[in-house]
Amino acid sequence: MTVTLKTVSSNKSKSFISKYFFLIFTLIYFAVYLKSIFFGFVEDDYGLIALDYKNAINQTFHTHHFRPIMFLSYPLVNELFGKTALAHHLVNFLIQYVNSLLALIIFSKWVGKIKIFFIVTIWNLLPWSVFPIVWISQRNDLLMTFFVFISIYFVEKKSVLLASLSSLFAFLSKVTSLFFPIYMLLFYKKSKNFIYGGLITFLISLLCAWWGFRQYSIKPHLADLSFNFRMLNYCKNWFHGWFSIIIPIPFFENYLHFLIYGFFLVFFTLWARKYYLFTETSKKAIALALLLSITTAMNPELRVVFLQSFFFLLFVIASLKNPALNKMFFIIALLFSAYILPANLLTQNKFDSGEYSGEMENAYQPSSSALYLNPYYTNLRQFFINAKSYL
Fold first, then answer.
1. pLDDT tens for residues 274-307?
2. What is the pLDDT of residues 217-231, one digit of tens each?
3. Residue 47 half-sphere exposure, CB side, CA atoms within 13 Å?
4. Which residue ranges make up each domain of the chain?
5. How far apart are CA 224 and CA 144, in angstroms?
6. Residue 172 pLDDT exceeds 80
């Protein structure tokens, strides 16, 4: 009788979430991020907000950041709504809200409504997800995510042209999606149209990336390294990027925070082993995460793994058998939220500080490393610089 009551109670909870998952997510998202639309400008915002259309194009073709859609979005918002922090923050806020709704719609067909609700909610609450949502300068991640989701939607609809164009637009928003078209080659190789579409899109993106890379200057502390050491450094960066997603050291405010997270990570890993099942959906999700992770060889910071984190979460939860969606799953999800929500809000406060906000002129512009919860990246970079002197 007790088991039956527990089952009925669990089913009622899942039924409620399944029925109202759009509304529940909307309430959570607005509760966590609505205040961010009233934040000021931070660091790179000042230069990007000042762009007009001509300078946005020049920025694309004369710097190593080949991001025309991202750059053009700033003068467009200025023209439509004015050159204010409120307007630009509101645009970021709404783009991510649309991205989240797209994820709920598109990927519910992959894993079901309950699972995708938890994936999208946790993804938005991750402390490093604060950066693209709250930082005007990181709109590129939001635009790229929008076009990647749209491309996957058209892939599912077997519309090669629209899927390929959306994939190209994703790259033109941020180079992180350079290898995304390979997804079509891996999972739709029986369709010649998808092979041609994915290959052509990838080659065009590769050509644009090469053009941008021509403008790239190697950082001074790496310039005198041999080719082999540079390759080792890129491999180190890639592994470091994945390690940071699993153990997000830059978002631990203190050792207690770290211990709490470590406890829940071990607890979840031991519990999840009982329900693990590698499926076709798991395969697609981890392939997408790996393809998006390749460019982290250049920069492994957590603020650039926004979309990669979504697909990794999709992989983890898609690999749990449906019986795992029991009371213990809900408890673990709540416990995990007990870590990520405070870390999220503390990170948002970094962008809300009066020290970082203000008018366009005469405003203090901090280093992006100051926007993490501890100086992990600064210390790590200094460690490798010092280590290099002994080589």
1. 888 888 999 999 999 999 999 998 888 888 899 9
2. 566 656 666 777 778
3. 9
4. 21-388
5. 34
6. yes
SS3 of 309, please?
helix
If 0-12 CB within 10 Å is exposed, 13-18 middle and 19+ buried, where does residue 391 land? exposed
SS3 letters for the chain? CHHHHHHHHHHHHHHHHHHHHHHHHHHHHHHHHHHHHHCCCCCCHHHHHCCCHHHHHHHHHHCCCCCHHHHHHHHHHHHHHCCCHHHHHHHHHHHHHHHHHHHHHHCHHHHCHHHHHHHHHHHHHCHHHHHHHHCHHHHHHHHHHHHHHHHHHHHHCCCHHHHHHHHHHHHHHCHHHCCCCHHHHHHCCCCHHHHHHHHHHHHHHHHHHHHHHCCCCCCHHHHCCCHHHHHHHHHHHHHHHHHHHHCCHHHCCCHHHHHHHHHHHHHHHHHHHHHECCCHHHHHHHHHHHHHHHHHHCCCCHHHCHHHHHHHHHHHHHCECHHHCCHHHHHHHHHHHHHHHHHHHHHHHHHHCCCCCCCCCCCCCCCHHHHCCCCHHHHHHHHHHHHHCCC
Q: How many residues comprise the chain?
A: 391
User: What's the token pair of residue 161?
Assistant: 């042209």
Question: Which amino acid appears at position 61 of this protein?
Answer: F
